[in-house]
Amino acid sequence: QSHQDADNAVHGWCIDTALGSFDPDKGGHLVLWDLGLVICFPPGAMIAFPLALITHSSIPIHKGKTHYALVQFSSSGLFHWRANGFQSDRSFVARADPLQLAECEEIWMHQWKLSLQKFIRWGHLSQGEEG
Question: What is the DSSP string of 76-113?
Protein backbone atom coordinates (compact mmCIF):
# COMPACT_ATOMS: atom_id res chain seq x y z
CA GLN A 1 0.00 0.00 0.00
CA SER A 2 1.60 3.28 -1.06
CA HIS A 3 1.58 5.99 1.60
CA GLN A 4 3.25 8.97 3.23
CA ASP A 5 3.96 8.90 6.96
CA ALA A 6 2.02 11.99 8.01
CA ASP A 7 2.90 11.57 11.71
CA ASN A 8 6.61 12.04 10.98
CA ALA A 9 8.23 15.46 11.25
CA VAL A 10 8.19 16.96 7.76
CA HIS A 11 11.62 18.54 8.21
CA GLY A 12 13.29 15.30 9.27
CA TRP A 13 15.08 12.56 7.43
CA CYS A 14 13.93 9.06 8.27
CA ILE A 15 16.12 5.97 8.12
CA ASP A 16 14.52 2.84 6.63
CA THR A 17 16.40 -0.46 7.05
CA ALA A 18 15.34 -3.67 5.28
CA LEU A 19 15.51 -6.83 7.38
CA GLY A 20 14.47 -10.43 6.86
CA SER A 21 15.15 -13.43 4.67
CA PHE A 22 14.10 -12.80 1.08
CA ASP A 23 15.56 -12.62 -2.42
CA PRO A 24 15.89 -8.88 -3.20
CA ASP A 25 15.82 -9.62 -6.94
CA LYS A 26 12.31 -11.09 -6.60
CA GLY A 27 10.69 -8.66 -4.16
CA GLY A 28 11.11 -6.24 -1.29
CA HIS A 29 12.00 -3.36 -3.61
CA LEU A 30 11.41 0.14 -2.28
CA VAL A 31 9.16 2.22 -4.55
CA LEU A 32 9.40 6.02 -4.31
CA TRP A 33 6.32 6.94 -6.31
CA ASP A 34 6.80 10.72 -6.43
CA LEU A 35 10.34 10.29 -7.77
CA GLY A 36 9.47 7.48 -10.19
CA LEU A 37 12.07 5.18 -8.61
CA VAL A 38 12.06 1.45 -7.87
CA ILE A 39 15.09 0.58 -5.74
CA CYS A 40 16.46 -2.92 -5.12
CA PHE A 41 16.47 -2.99 -1.32
CA PRO A 42 18.17 -6.14 0.03
CA PRO A 43 18.23 -7.21 3.69
CA GLY A 44 20.59 -4.95 5.63
CA ALA A 45 20.25 -2.03 3.20
CA MET A 46 19.51 1.42 4.63
CA ILE A 47 18.17 4.56 3.01
CA ALA A 48 17.46 8.05 4.33
CA PHE A 49 14.56 10.05 2.93
CA PRO A 50 11.69 12.20 4.23
CA LEU A 51 8.93 9.61 4.72
CA ALA A 52 6.40 12.37 5.45
CA LEU A 53 6.89 13.96 2.03
CA ILE A 54 7.52 11.11 -0.41
CA THR A 55 4.85 8.55 -1.29
CA HIS A 56 6.44 5.13 -0.91
CA SER A 57 5.72 1.40 -0.71
CA SER A 58 7.43 -1.98 -0.96
CA ILE A 59 7.01 -4.68 -3.58
CA PRO A 60 5.68 -7.91 -1.99
CA ILE A 61 8.08 -10.81 -1.39
CA HIS A 62 7.56 -14.51 -2.15
CA LYS A 63 5.42 -16.67 0.11
CA GLY A 64 7.40 -18.30 2.91
CA LYS A 65 9.96 -15.49 3.05
CA THR A 66 10.17 -12.74 5.68
CA HIS A 67 10.51 -8.98 5.24
CA TYR A 68 10.70 -6.42 8.02
CA ALA A 69 11.37 -2.70 8.04
CA LEU A 70 13.15 -0.94 10.88
CA VAL A 71 12.20 2.72 10.57
CA GLN A 72 13.79 5.51 12.59
CA PHE A 73 11.97 8.84 12.53
CA SER A 74 11.11 11.97 14.50
CA SER A 75 7.48 12.13 15.53
CA SER A 76 5.80 15.41 14.61
CA GLY A 77 3.75 15.02 17.78
CA LEU A 78 6.84 15.75 19.90
CA PHE A 79 7.37 19.05 18.11
CA HIS A 80 3.68 19.92 18.45
CA TRP A 81 3.79 19.02 22.17
CA ARG A 82 6.64 21.49 22.71
CA ALA A 83 5.06 24.25 20.58
CA ASN A 84 1.70 23.79 22.35
CA GLY A 85 3.20 24.52 25.76
CA PHE A 86 3.74 20.83 26.58
CA GLN A 87 0.25 19.63 25.79
CA SER A 88 -1.32 17.64 22.98
CA ASP A 89 -2.91 19.27 19.94
CA ARG A 90 -6.32 18.15 21.23
CA SER A 91 -5.77 19.78 24.65
CA PHE A 92 -4.35 22.94 23.11
CA VAL A 93 -7.29 23.33 20.69
CA ALA A 94 -9.81 22.70 23.49
CA ARG A 95 -8.28 25.43 25.67
CA ALA A 96 -7.14 28.00 23.10
CA ASP A 97 -9.12 31.06 22.18
CA PRO A 98 -9.68 31.96 18.50
CA LEU A 99 -6.70 34.34 18.46
CA GLN A 100 -4.36 31.66 19.85
CA LEU A 101 -5.64 29.17 17.27
CA ALA A 102 -5.06 31.64 14.43
CA GLU A 103 -1.54 32.41 15.71
CA CYS A 104 -0.78 28.71 15.99
CA GLU A 105 -1.98 28.05 12.44
CA GLU A 106 0.20 30.89 11.16
CA ILE A 107 3.24 29.55 13.03
CA TRP A 108 2.73 26.01 11.68
CA MET A 109 2.32 27.24 8.09
CA HIS A 110 5.51 29.29 8.46
CA GLN A 111 7.31 26.26 9.94
CA TRP A 112 6.05 24.07 7.08
CA LYS A 113 7.50 26.47 4.51
CA LEU A 114 10.82 26.70 6.37
CA SER A 115 10.99 22.92 6.60
CA LEU A 116 10.48 22.47 2.87
CA GLN A 117 13.20 25.03 2.13
CA LYS A 118 15.73 22.84 3.98
CA PHE A 119 15.68 20.30 1.18
CA ILE A 120 17.95 20.70 -1.83
CA ARG A 121 15.99 20.69 -5.06
CA TRP A 122 17.25 18.65 -7.99
CA GLY A 123 17.28 21.66 -10.31
CA HIS A 124 19.59 23.53 -7.95
CA LEU A 125 21.76 20.49 -7.30
CA SER A 126 22.27 19.80 -11.00
CA GLN A 127 23.37 23.43 -11.44
CA GLY A 128 25.88 23.25 -8.58
CA GLU A 129 23.77 25.34 -6.19
CA GLU A 130 23.02 24.36 -2.59
CA GLY A 131 19.37 25.32 -2.15
Answer: HHHHHHHHTTSS-HHHHHHH--HHHHHHHHHHHHHHHH
pLDDT of 71-128, one tens digit each? 999 888 898 898 888 999 999 999 999 999 999 889 888 888 887 777 766 566 566 6
* Counts of helices then strands in the chain (DSSP H, E): 4, 6
Strands, sheet with 46-49, edge to edge from the N-terminal-most edge strand: 46-49, 14-21, 66-72
State how far the alpha carbon of 4 is from the alpha carbons of 52, 68, 97, 130, in Å. Answer: 5, 18, 32, 26
Contact partners, residue 33, CB within 8 Å, separation at least 6: 2, 54, 55, 56, 57
The DSSP H or E segment spanning 37 is: strand 37-39
Distance of CA 103 to the CA centre of its chain: 26
**Coarse DSSP helix, strand, coil percentages of the chain, rounded to the nearest 5 percent:** 35, 25, 45
Residue type (1 letter), 23: D
